[in-house]
């Protein structure tokens, strides 16, 4: 895979994070749609770079501490948003998806 594809994906993640941050300035309605677009861009980046040992610093900066930032930024944050933020951090930094739908042990 060429580095340009990785660079474009990283730029998309950073751009979508900026769009989401801008949408957070509207205090009336939580920008769930903008958040989900950011998450989708980050997951595309994770797919592209899953076999590579290094990630872009800008992507790490966009995702690192996301859940804590969202919890502090507003009093009321949809639970799905916090869940997806936690999940995204695990996928990017730990390399696994903590969401186990369909993969649970039959004993649980």
**Total count of strands:** 0
The number of helices is 5
What is the SS-derived class? Answer: mainly alpha
Tell me the span between the first and last alpha carbons. Answer: 41 Å
**Shape annotation:** globular
Proportion of helical residues: 55-70%
Q: What is the number of domains?
A: 1
Order of helices and strands: HHHHH
Query: What's the Cα radius of gyration?
Result: 15 Å
**Quick check: average pLDDT?**
87
The proportion of residues in beta strands is: under 5%
Identify low-pLDDT runs: none
Largest sheet: none
Q: What's the SSE blueprint?
A:
Blueprint: H1 3-23, H2 32-48, H3 57-63, H4 66-73, H5 79-94
Helix pairs in contact: 1-2, 2-5, 4-5
Give an overview in words.
The longest helix has 21 residues, at 3-23. The protein has one domain. The chain has 5 helices and no strands. Helix 1 (3-23) packs antiparallel against helix 2 (32-48), helix 2 (32-48) runs parallel beside helix 5 and helix 4 (66-73) runs antiparallel to helix 5 (79-94). The chain has 108 residues and is mainly alpha-helical. 64% of the residues lie in helices and 0% in strands.
Jot down its keywords.
0% strand, 108 residues, mainly alpha
